[in-house]
Design a protein that fits this description.
- The protein has two domains: 2-45 and 286-394, Lyase, Ornithine Decarboxylase, Chain A, domain 1, CATH 2.40.37.10; 47-285, Alpha-Beta Barrel (TIM Barrel).
- Helices cover 30% and strands 22% of the residues.
- It has helices at residues 2-14, 29-36, 47-60, 75-83, 94-103, 118-126, 137-146, 181-189, 209-225, 250-268, 282-285, and strands spanning 20-26, 42-45, 64-68, 88-91, 108-111, 131-134, 154-158, 194-198, 231-233, 275-278, 289-299, 302-305, 325-327, 335-341, 350-358, 366-369, 390-394.
- Strands 1, 2, 11, 12, 13, 14, 15, 16 and 17 form a nine-stranded mixed sheet that branches. The protein has an eight-stranded parallel barrel with strand order 3-4-5-6-7-8-9-10.
- It is elongated and about 65 Å long.
- Mean pLDDT is 94; it is low at 1-15.
- It binds pyridoxal-5'-phosphate (PLP).
């Protein structure tokens, strides 16, 4: 009785936070706003832009592309990636594995989280997953226990990298130290049909040389281990366009990877990996979603809008990331920078920006915020009851293009 009352009390905040899919396709964001006049955040999905970016990446990369599902697990996003040539998915939880299996039964899946619950390993194995990441002997033992030491295991050792200068550094949490990696590789070799090394240079990494440095480190580790490597996984971290970013073209990243791969083959000879993998997330999907917000109040240079850091804009909060913005009506006013406040009562719910908008923007106006397809919708919460949102498909061009990727 008490338990059911509690459930009733919390249920309005625990419903699925995914935006309500209107199953509508409209030609442009402007047309969608004109028709729907949305008072809730309107998610505008651009499947063609996702498909095009996926095609650009899979054609440029000389190996197998695994999309990092956490970045945006929406079934339509997964399908668009598949149409763009992505045939494998990097999952980090049983829920991610299950959505990929449902949407794309033919897809390859690798479980790339280096620290897994035992029950999660069992569930993955039951779903036919055989490739698992690890960064410790303890994790190796867990994988062997829970898969019954399957004969066809792929074991991918995640290597820790020195701290880099990516937009979002990922060096502190996972990975075996380079001096401990050879022993772990030798141990894993005895149990692996496929033995791999992976790393992550950090998200939104704009320096192609980071991949070359990481691949050289991987080569040293393999040489020290003296074991044959089957897979070298160069991870994710490929950048997407944001205001102010001056990015090298996609081909510049691939040139470093290809060059480093050639060096590695020369250095390692028979031990060199036959296969390259990559795990892009952000670069494939960021441009695939814009969110249209409505202004509820203006106070000076601050706009109070209906989405914020507990919704699709979390990285605009503490991380201070800026996103491209566009006022959805004609204005001849001068452009000036604005700060945004989100809808919750929390004072952290502030996006400093600055977001350049015409000086006459005000209550009732709609603003398109671009580049929210990566880590935008997937990080939404129901905090304070602000979990409403709608989703439509559009086919106009994204607000920003990432150099070297086809736009659609
Ligand atoms: C998050 C993640 C990725 C994707 O990173 P992006 O910066 O979005 O490209 C790839 N691999 C692993 C293991 C991850 O955790």
């Amino acid at each position: 009785m008490a338990a059911s009352r509690l459930r009733v009390a919390v249920s309005p905040l625990r419903r699925d936070v995914a935006p309500r899919d209107l199953a509508r396709t409209l030609p442009t964001v402007d047309a969608a706003v004109a028709e729907l006049r949305p008072e809730e955040p309107l998610h505008c999905l651009r499947p063609q832009a996702i498909e095009a970016a996926a095609r650009s990446f899979t054609e440029a990369f000389a190996g197998r592309t695994l999309y990092a599902v956490k970045c945006n697990p929406d079934p339509r996003v997964l399908s668009a990636l598949w149409r763009g040539g992505v045939r494998a998915f990097d999952c980090a939880s049983p829920a991610e594995i299950s959505v990929v299996r449902q949407v794309l039964p033919e897809a390859g899946i690798a479980y790339m989280h280096p620290v897994k619950a035992r029950s999660a390993i069992r569930l993955a194995a039951a779903e036919g997953v055989r490739d698992f990441a690890l960064d410790s002997v303890d994790e190796l033992e867990k994988i062997l226990d829970e898969t019954g030491s399957a004969e066809d295991l792929g074991l991918v050792v995640r290597l820790a990298l020195p701290k880099g200068k990516a937009g979002l550094d990922l060096s502190g949490k996972f990975g075996v130290a380079p001096d401990e990696a050879p022993a772990l590789l030798r141990r894993a070799r005895g149990h692996a049909r496929r033995l791999g090394i992976s790393f992550h240079v950090g998200s939104q990494c704009d320096d192609p040389a980071r991949w070359r440095q990481a691949m050289a480190l991987a080569a040293s580790v393999v040489a020290a281990a003296g074991v044959k490597l089957d897979v070298l996984d160069v991870g994710g971290g490929f950048p997407s366009a944001y205001p102010g970013a001056d990015l090298p073209v996609l081909a510049a990243f691939m040139a470093e990877i290809d060059g480093a791969h050639a060096d590695l083959v020369e250095r390692l000879g028979d031990l060199a990996p036959g296969e390259l993998w990559a795990e892009p997330g952000r670069a494939l999907v960021a441009q695939g979603v814009s969110v249209v917000v409505q202004v509820q109040a203006r106070r000076g240079d601050a706009l109070y809008v209906n989405d914020g850091i507990y919704g699709s804009l979390s990285d605009a909060g503490a991380l201070g990331w800026r996103y491209p913005v566009r006022l959805i009506r004609a204005s001849t006013a001068d452009v000036k920078p604005f700060t945004l406040f989100g809808p919750t009562c929390c004072s952290l719910d502030r996006m400093k920006g600055g977001f350049p908008l015409p000086a006459d923007v005000g209550e009732g106006d709609w603003i398109e915020i671009g580049q929210l397809g990566a880590y935008g919708a997937s990080l939404r919460t129901a905090f304070n009851g602000f979990d409403r949102g709608q989703l439509v498909e559009v086919s106009d061009a994204p607000l920003l293009a990432t150099p070297g990727y086809a736009a659609a």
